[in-house]
Batch of 4 targets.
Target 1
Amino acid sequence: MGAMKVIYPGSFDPPTNGHFDIMNRAAAIFEELEIVIADNPQKKYLFSADERFEMITTMVAEYPNVQVTIWRGLIVDFAEKIGAKVILRGVRALSDFDYEFELSMMNRALNPRIETLFMPTDQKYFVLRSSGIKEVAMFGGDISEMVPTIVEQKLLARIGKQTQQT
Ligand code: ADP
């Protein structure tokens, strides 16, 4: 068996301290962690795939066993392509579970050789979600405890620009 690879996919629009906690914990147990930035042409993002890539790359710069990729396709196809057998997803409240369970069933139907594993969030990050953080930033709230510094800077710059436009 080759090195135990895991992929952690998500929109990461933007990445939060909750995502970062999952990345840290996964990097400590798996030999290789591949963070996959999903870029779905049907979805509207605040940050482009390249911008999300830049933020996450900065966040994990010190980790020798972590890589970041942008993928515009099915996650199970990416897993198959790089020889990863595990998809990792983070879960917060029970409300996440509904969606995550369904997604895992879908992925299993698409490719039964790939397993989904769930990692529960640390209680410190229980309420953190990208959409909520964008809203807090929009209304001028303090997000410094919710996202890494690089993300805070990008978010404030982006929102500042948007406010000027209107
Ligand atoms: P998606 O848009 O693919 O649902 P997100 O970018 O919102 O993904 O999140 C990627 C993964 O990280 C998902 O599995 C999500 O449940 C998980 N996640 C999001 N926020 C947190 C958090 N605060 N703690 C732990 N896991 C989280």
Note: The chain has one domain: 5-127.
Target 2
Amino acid sequence: MGTKKKSWKEERIRRDQIDKYLNADGSDFINDVLIESQIRDNVNPDPQKVRDIIAKSMAVETLSPQEAATLLNVEDPQLWKEMEEAAGLIKQKVYDNRIVTFAPLYLSTSCVNNCLYCGLRSDNQSVTRGILSIDEVKREIEVLAGTIGHKRLIIVYGEHPQSDVDYMAETMEAIYGVKAKVKNGYSSIRRVNVNAAPLPIEYLSRLNQIGIGTYQVFQETYHKKTYSTVHPSNTLKGDYRWRLYCMHRALEAGIDDVGIGALFGLYEWKFEVMALLYHAIELETKFGIGPHTISFPRLEPADNTPFNQSSAHRVSDEDFRKIVTMIRLAVPYTGMILTARENAQMRKSLIPCGVTQTDASSKIGLGAYNSYDGPEQVANRQQFILGDTRSLDEVVRELALMGHITSFCTAGYRCGRTGQCIMDLLRTGAEGKFCKLNAVITYREWLDDFASEETKSVGEQIIKNEIEEVKCTNPKVFEMFMDYYRRTAEGERDLYF
Ligand code: SAM
Ligand code: SF4
């Protein structure tokens, strides 16, 4: 048994699937020394220079690392306020008032890695391990799609031979196959995003054929020394470059939508923001497609994991706000995911800084939506502790009261609006036109199938405003849109542009 597992591990990392992407001199695209010096060299920026850079972001142009370093060095609170306002306006320009929602679903909690910050690390003896059977997966989907009304998931796997590509493929197919009965027909998961370990190109092609949405892998920290401290070198995750180039492999495998991220709290936050920008620029340069999403998880407490309290780089709420603002300004076209790691108050206050996606009714224990019937959060059954476990209904209502429409739209991916195509649409602001129509239609669906009376009454006002807006801004399609809208209100499902 021991040898079998070893050979699985030994076979995983394909050196040639790293080397071919390296620079001619054998280096990668993260130059730690250069990044540190760019941050150091741009202190005390001239306010006019800062405003010129903000104007570039407002034109939906990716910033250069020098420009980002300049903004990162702003100390004046008034200028930060201007940056924050600009971040909100950019989000509005590119994505309008839509916030996409989803839920996380953990499928396995066994992991061969030993990341110091993670409750699921192999050394942690106190955590409960497991893997959902296909029947258990289907039962989770019955709740997620049938009772709560989610249409999008991020499914999460530990890195382990039991949850390798065959299991991933089988579970994805099972998820797409569930049609949960609701009063107006059925509800199903229409987009499955995946957060898993870095995979070889062949495996990624296979997941692409099954219909993977976004493939998400976070570098955790781009700082090489810190990376090797928190990811022991005898583990698969200890290989920095295998992880660094996984989005190159994904794009080569035909997966258009890739999601990058850093776990804030491991190293200096300004460095990580710069490195995320370098990653985005590298993908734009090599593939013509930047990251579909950027995630910015912040270190949370986890069972039996003292590292998380002792890290010297834990991020304050104030700095976290700057992180969100900076990512929006540096990579203006990208989707930005704020998760339920953050508490309700923090989420409410950060959404106006440029966030485009957020989860709701999240449970991250294995089988927690249906199969497991205990308290909401149990430390030794989950990777870390969530800060916000509010229901989707409450989150939709809060967003509506803030003037946002929660979008359940999954059409972009199903109509081929991904990758280069979506990048162009986002940059020109045209994406919002399709998405607004689909957002309204899917919102109608969700309100009728799942909302409480209280949420429904707030949501109706949003719909009214949106219909007026479509009438004025998109008159050519208005008639057809209203036809789809009426049919949806009468009970037809899954109509989209
Ligand atoms: N096993 C996969 C991997 O490591 O790539 C996915 C696991 S997990 C759902 C996804 C992310 O959660 C990790 O990439 C990491 O950034 C984050 N994470 C891990 N431990 C965390 C903690 N204690 N607090 C907050 N986020 C954490
Ligand atoms: Fe495993 Fe991911 Fe946790 Fe690391 S972060 S121990 S790879 S589940």
Note: The pocket of S-adenosylmethionine (ligand 1) is lined by residues 117-118, 156, 158-159, 195-197, 217-218, 220, 263, 297, 299-300, 302, 308, 341, 383-384 (CB under 6 Å).
Target 3
Amino acid sequence: MNYSILKYQHESGVGILTISRPEALNALNSLFFKEFNDFLNSIQTSETLKVLIITGEGKSFVAGADIGEMQKMNADEGFSFSKTGQEAFGKLVNLDIPVIAAVNGFALGGGCELAMACDFRIASLKAKFGLPEVSLGLIPGYGGTQRLSRLVGLGDALYLVLTGQMIDSSEALRIGLVQKVVEPEVLITEAKNIAAKIAEQSPCAIKTAKKAIRKGYNVEIDKGFDLEAELFSKMFENDGSEGMKAFLEKRKPNWN
Ligand code: CO8
């Protein structure tokens, strides 16, 4: 895989994808989406990758969609740029494996939307979050108007989008936009430790738990319970029997 904006390392089941366009604070342009789609296609069939971490190079996670590129667009091009981002982030959400955003700096506009499309977010004390699109005469267009309220509730979503205000990582933690805040120097180590903990578990249980939560979140709760029971029962024909047997035999499980 030869990319100009993305850098990728994979070790012991944990992949780290770094968005590297620091001269523009890692702003998302068309080339990014081309490379990101290629990357997501390439990992979909990986049998060794168990967790993906996404981070940014330099002082920014991602400072938004590329304003210079968007400024030249008409409404049709804007629609298609929005759809490109929504589809790519949708593909990320639908990966079988968990995805952790390790937010090192600015996560603004499309960058905050990318972080929200990950399964959860670990932030450095230096991270800053915001959806400042209204200050550009725009609105969030990569899923932000829909995902933010689902993550933090209606009031905080409306507050953040309508004021365009940037918040620090402590405030992001308070409203539930991030799950953990750490010192900048240990951000990647902490993300790797969490990823390693997940990578130890049954890959089938991890994939199935993610599916139950993600799919169940978008349906009526009774349908979610049905989905859970169906997926739960399938685990008995998979790693469930080995996991419970290993517990009773006081040994480590050998996952399928
Ligand atoms: N796009 C393009 N270039 C950018 C972006 C961006 N989003 N953000 C920063 N840059 C560039 C700057 O222009 C500057 O370039 P140069 O050195 O050539 O002048 C370089 O990065 C460094 O930036 P600054 O000098 O501004 O760095 P500061 O530390 O002074 O400020 C900020 C950092 C506060 C992050 C500031 O750069 C900023 O406000 N950036 C823009 C943030 C923003 O508004 N983001 C939202 C963009 S809109 C969006 O994301 C919509 C998503 C949905 C799209 C739907 C499709 C239609």
Note: Strands lie at 6-11, 14-19, 51-56, 60-62, 99-103, 106-108, 120-124, 128-130, 167-168, 180-182.
Target 4
Amino acid sequence: MPKTILLPLLANGEFHSGQDLANALGVSRTAVWKQLQKLEGLGLAIESVKGRGYRIPGGIELLCESQVRAGLNEQGSALLTELAVAEAVDSTNAEALRKIEQGAGAGVVCTAEQQTAGRGRRGRAWVSPYARNLYLSIVGEFTQGAAALEGLSLAAGVAVARALEKSGVPQVQLKWPNDILLGGAKLGGILLEMVGDAAGSCQVVVGVGVNVAMPAATAAPIEQDWTDVATISSAAGVAAPGRNALLAALLNELLPLVDNFEAGGFALWQEAWQKLDAHAGKPVVLTTGSEQLAGIARGVNERGALQLETTLGVQSVFGGEISLRVSE
Ligand code: BTN
């Protein structure tokens, strides 16, 4: 029995007796109980109350292609060529890269309820529990190689911040090169992967992860402060946006960005990025491998390079495998 057979019944957050679930699915109560255990194994909290049955407190919203499409605007709809919604994949970026190998082009989007080997920056894993957060990867096609991609991941951060703001999650900030923050805690991240000719025709996968309702126990391996949309919305006393609506809002911002970026480059996004910069004017330390460079963060230039004011003057630092933290 696939895990989604039981889930649509429990998704509404209401109590269902074991017998009702068994009857609805045409299986034994033991089979229902085993499925409930599997769901718990996926990190979904199942509440069990004697005499009432089982429920997922607060309910969950499963991804639904038609609901996502219904939330797209005209431009988003026109640019989306395929929306693949998987139950589980290793990584939506890996899935998008496999699709490129099979001939997929611009506008293909891969999403999944769960990633079993979600990829973060600097070789880290991206914690990707089932049906809780958003994981999406968008394929873009470029003709002028890697140079034309400079600053694309920063611009993607601006697009994600705009989508969140339009979905009722304001005050999102960006941390160079491409972390999505709220109140200093990590709300999401962006990972670009490129294939093709580094000097000519190439494809890029823009991978975005947003924490929507991260179970605290699942988040234990995350080595930095993190937050999620549910926590922010509940602190603000507003209803959190549904995952399908939020996914559509992200695609409405990200698809045009990926489509247009090569024409104007990061220069068109520089000002917007600086307005969202979490560290502007703050003392920071950059770490590359074993090397550290301290200075004051002074925004980014038109190529997306961090402007670090050091004792030797302002230095331009490009992304890659560098990490930034506020100095103590
Ligand atoms: C980071 O380390 O901040 C970047 C995280 C990027 C995670 C997203 S989730 C969707 C896509 N698929 C992946 O495997 N990674 C990216």
Note: The pocket of biotin is lined by residues 91-93, 115, 118-121, 124, 126, 135-137, 179, 189-191, 207-209 (CB under 6 Å).
